[in-house]
Amino acid sequence: MYQWSKRDRFLYSAILFPFLAAFIGASYLLATVSIYLTIIFLLLYVIANFFQAGCCIGCPYRGKFCPAVFGIYLANFLSAAIYKKRNFEPRFFKVNATLTEISVIIALLFPVYWLLSLNWYYLVVFLSLIVVHIVLFYPIICPKCSYNDTCPGGQVVHKLFKK
Hints:
The chain has 7 helices and no strands. The chain is mainly alpha-helical. The chain has one domain (6-137). The relative contact order is 0.16.
């Protein structure tokens, strides 16, 4: 199992900044339209965490520091609490991985209409921050993870960088 160093955690934190800026900024802007939009956006985040927690079963980082999907999810801690006695099952993992991917995509697309309706510039900034995060996260953090042969994101990284 790869041991995350202080340098890795620093890089992770630095790479996480664009995603946090996009997420917090979108939450704030959605609230200017309706607080309910922000609540829905946050619920989508919680749903993604719940499904990701199902993927964390069998992960060596479960209950510890873990970058997880996009590096912003706390599912590894959630998994240790909810699925404490459950063992890894490939079918359960695959279902949860698919639902995680779908819920992350929905969460990322959810604010698009409202950001565009407020100002096209907000949408450009939001999408740019997400792209910066992805471009930095996948090649720098994913290859180090000990679970990247199983994780769908890690599998993509392996294909992209031919490991």
